[in-house]
Structures are given as C-alpha cells and as structure tokens.
Design goal:
Elements: E1 2-4, H1 7-18, H2 25-42, E2 49-54, H3 58-72, E3 76-81, H4 89-97, E4 101-103, H5 108-113, E5 117-121, H6 133-144, E6 148-152, E7 174-178, E8 196-200, E9 214-216, H7 219-225, H8 235-238, E10 240-244, H9 251-263, E11 268-272, H10 276-282, E12 287-289, E13 301-304, H11 312-323, E14 328-330, H12 332-337, H13 340-344, E15 350-352, H14 356-363, H15 367-372, H16 374-385, E16 388-391, E17 397-399, E18 406-408, H17 421-434, H18 439-456, H19 463-485
Parallel strand pairs: 2-3, 2-5, 3-4, 5-6, 6-7, 7-8, 9-18, 10-11, 10-13, 11-12, 13-14, 14-15, 15-16
Antiparallel strand pairs: 1-9, 16-17, 17-18
Bound molecules: ligand NAX and potassium ion.
Cofactor: Mg(2+); K(+)
Catalytic activity: (6S)-NADHX + ADP = AMP + phosphate + NADH + H(+); (6S)-NADPHX + ADP = AMP + phosphate + NADPH + H(+); (6R)-NADHX = (6S)-NADHX; (6R)-NADPHX = (6S)-NADPHX
InterPro entries: Carbohydrate_kinase_pred_CS, CARKD, Nnr, Ribokinase-like, YjeF_N_dom, YjeF_N_dom_sf
Amino acid sequence: MRCGYDVETVRAAERALMGTLPDGALMRRAAFGLATACADMLGGVYGRRVVVLAGSGDNGGDALYAAAALARRGAGAVAVELAPERTHPGALAALRAAGGRTVAPEDADAVIGRADLVLDGIVGIGGKGGLRPEAARLAELARRARAAVVAVDLPSGIDPDTGEVAGEAVRADVTVAFGAYKPGLLIDPGAEHVGALRFTDIGLGPHLPRTPALEALQHADVAALLPSPSGESDKYRRGVVGVVAGSERYPGAAVLAVGGALRGGAGAVRYVGPGADAVIARFPETLVSAGPPAKAGRVQAWVIGPGLGDDSRARQAVAEVVAADVPVLIDADALRLADREAVRARRAGTVLTPHAGEAAALLDADRGDVEGARLAQVRRLAEEFRATALLKGSTTLVAGPDGAAVRVNPTGSAWLSTAGSGDVLSGLTGSLLAAGLSAQDAASVGAYLHGLAGRDLPPPFGAHELADRVPLVRASIMDSVTNDALPRT
Ligand SMILES: NC(=O)C1=CN([C@@H]2O[C@H](COP(=O)(O)OP(=O)(O)OC[C@H]3O[C@@H](n4cnc5c(N)ncnc54)[C@H](O)[C@@H]3O)[C@@H](O)[C@H]2O)[C@@H](O)CC1
Ligand SMILES: [K+]
C-alpha cells in the first residue's frame, strides 16, 4: 500500500524524529536523496548547468544543499533567490563554498534558458494558497524551459493535502518526495504536475500514524483481497450478482455491465431488464428474468443504473433495489432516481459511482468545482449519502462513510474514457461486492482491475474489451505476487 499523509501529520512526525537527531540531519538526508535523483536524471554531473529556484523556506534549503553537492561534483550551479535576505543561510553558504553563485529573480529568464536542470525549491509543504506573483513567474519560466525540472518534495503551486491547484504551478519531470507521500502528489490536478514520483526515506516511518489520509493499493494488496474459489465453492458461495441495467434504447449497457460482472468472478449473474435477448446472445450463462428485481431470486449484491433510462419501470426498480438488504452499487441513471433518504437509511454496503458531472448534480455543485477539489467532494458524497463513493475521473477516488483513509486508484489511463467503460466497472465492482468484499474494497479493487485492463490493452479499444481483459490482468497480478514471494537464486 502506498500511503499519503497530510501536512499536519508529516510535521508532527518530523518534530518527533528531529528530537532524536542532531540539527540539520533531516535536511542532509533529504538533500542527499535529491542530489542522487538529479544525478540519475542528468546521466552525469560534470559540466552540467543546474539552476535552483530557491524560496526562503526549508524547501529552498533542501534544493540549495543538493545543488551544492552537485557543484562539488563539477556541475555549474546558480541559485535564483526569491527573497535574498531570507534565503536559508546555511544552505546558501554551502552552495557558495562549492563554487555556486546567486542571481536576482529579474535574471532568472537568462539562466533558466541555459540550464540542463531546474530544481524547484520555491515552496514545499509550507506553501499557503496559490503561488504569489514572483513565485508564479518562476514556475512559469520552469514550465517553458527546455531543461529537465525536478520538484523538491512537491511541485510548487500544488496543495499538498488535496492536489488542488490555484493558478500557476510547476510541472515537473521528476518529483522527489521526502519521508512521506503527500495526498496532493497522488490526486489530480496536482498529480498531473508530478512527473515520475521518487521517494527519499528520511526515517519518518516509525513516527507516522497507522491510518494515513490516503491510500493507493498495489498488486500485493489487490492479490490479498481478490476472491478465489476453493474446493467448497458453489455459485452462491462465489456470489450471485444481480444486474439491473439497459433499456430498449440502450441494450448495450446491459451487455457491458453483465460482462463486467462475469469477469469479476461472480458465481452467477442474474439480469433483470428489457435487454435480456442481447445479454443472452452474448453471455448464454446469464440467468435472465422478466419481472421486477424483488422477484428475481436470490442475489448477494445488486448493480443498478447503466443505461437504465428513467421511465416508471426504472424508478420502481431503483426503489426496490435500494430497499434490498444486500450490498448495492448505484450508477448512472440510478444515481438520479435513488431517494437520498432511502440510500442513507440502508444498512448493507452501498457504492455510488458517479463521474464528476453526476457528482456535481448530486452535490448541487459545478462540475469544475468537483474536478478541482476531488478529495473534498468525494468525502462530501460519502458523508451526505452515508455510502461508499467512487468518484470516477483522471484519478479515481473511493471514500467510505466512516472517515477511514480515502483510496486513490493508481492504475488507469485516459483511454478509459470511452462509452460503456463505466458500465463494465459497475458490473465488475458488483461482482466483488457479491463475493463478500466490503464496499470500499470492492470499489477500489474494481477500479484497480478496470484501470489495469485499460493500460494493458493497445488503444484505442472498446469497453467490451475491458471486461475481456480482466482475467489476464488478474493473472498478472497473481503471478507478480507469487514471483515476489519466491526465493531469489
Ligand atoms: N521540517 C523538516 O524536518 C524537513 C523539511 N524538509 C523540507 O522543508 C519543507 C518545508 O519547509 P518550510 O516549512 O520552511 O516551508 P516551505 O519552504 O515549504 O515554504 C515556506 C516558504 O514559502 C513561502 N511561501 C508560502 N506560501 C507561498 C506562496 N503561496 N507563494 C510563494 N511563496 C510562499 C513562505 O514565505 C516561506 O518562505 C518541506 O517541503 C521539505 O522540502 C526537508 O528538509 C526534510 C526535513
Ligand atoms: K517545491
């Protein structure tokens, strides 16, 4: 699991650790990791031109110490001081002692234009609000530069706790995070500015709390959560998922959601709705039923919404499914039709899967507000509906109603935004709910497999191919974990 900790938590851990170490030890560790990452990036140090954008806090200090280390190995180092009277004195002295020089912000353009590498030490976790004009100008120069840009701890201008970006922000090729990932490095729009994310351990681990603010699953976590049938399994033990989707107008949504559910590993899929002929033609193993969901027979979880429409049949089906005492996934049209109070009153797990536009409608907000503040908005959704909310988008987030860590999906690609992609995700996640995963695990594992399937397929692809790819990515996850566990020879 990759974890993100908010600034307050990181600061407290740093204080606890610093109390046990000589002065300046943490900054030395950070600067050493940073200089190593820069040398890797440059592929050699001697004769390279390094420019430091040095703010007046410790972030600038890290950058200056790293530049001093590079200068000692033969790089030319120049620091642009944002506020010369307040630059970190020890780090500045180290840079000068190593032969580096400083220039005023007015001269930044010229030195950045000749640089091979720009180190962004404008602000780190001490940044407040959008970048001030002088800092914003430097961030813009760095963005336009042909040099490689390495962000120190985080790209200046992104909010470390939320990933929100107000105005200009540095766009890095590499970001070197110290001690702990901050949530803003993992959530868009901040995450888009990070480039390749590297980590430098400064020893904070033992001082960080057990529960982070944000979690990103990795292969081993997913492998541990994925259900596998055992000798005792029958279709009910593996989980029967009921899918209420599709309409005369959108029969394809039914096929895609059922396909996702089958590939998610359910023991059986029941389909309820007017798309039965299309479903059976593609997946003859589906149990179809013409009546309402309440009469469809036993299921361990329901998926409702893709392509459903909003006629009286759809409304009735949503009310019945929301009233069921098994886990329910509510998507697409059903998000509009579900009664908020009825959803809040549910006792079994509930997963809502809106994209930003649907989330905006549910929260009475603007779509842009949802996209710009994804973490706050997914938490709000979970709270207001007392449900697990999966907010789809460039970084998919999953928040539970209990205030536990929010999950951010690390897989996925822009090619996933294709018609029907969400229908597959719904079926897939519903299948995991039926197998007994908690709402938050089912949603985050569903998003992980779905995203990985999207990365694995040569683009462009159609949504039905995503479902077909799930068994392959599942196998590769299992393989990678088994191989990791083998002794190395
Ligand atoms: N505290 C520690 O133990 C460690 C801190 N480290 C570094 O220290 C950083 C935090 O240092 P600081 O607390 O000094 O804070 P920062 O250096 O992140 O930021 C503070 C500086 O930024 C300026 N600033 C704030 N908001 C701004 C805005 N919107 N526009 C322009 N300038 C703005 C402030 O005036 C101040 O000069 C971390 O990100 C990390 O790089 C590392 O050296 C590891 C150890
Ligand atoms: K920075």
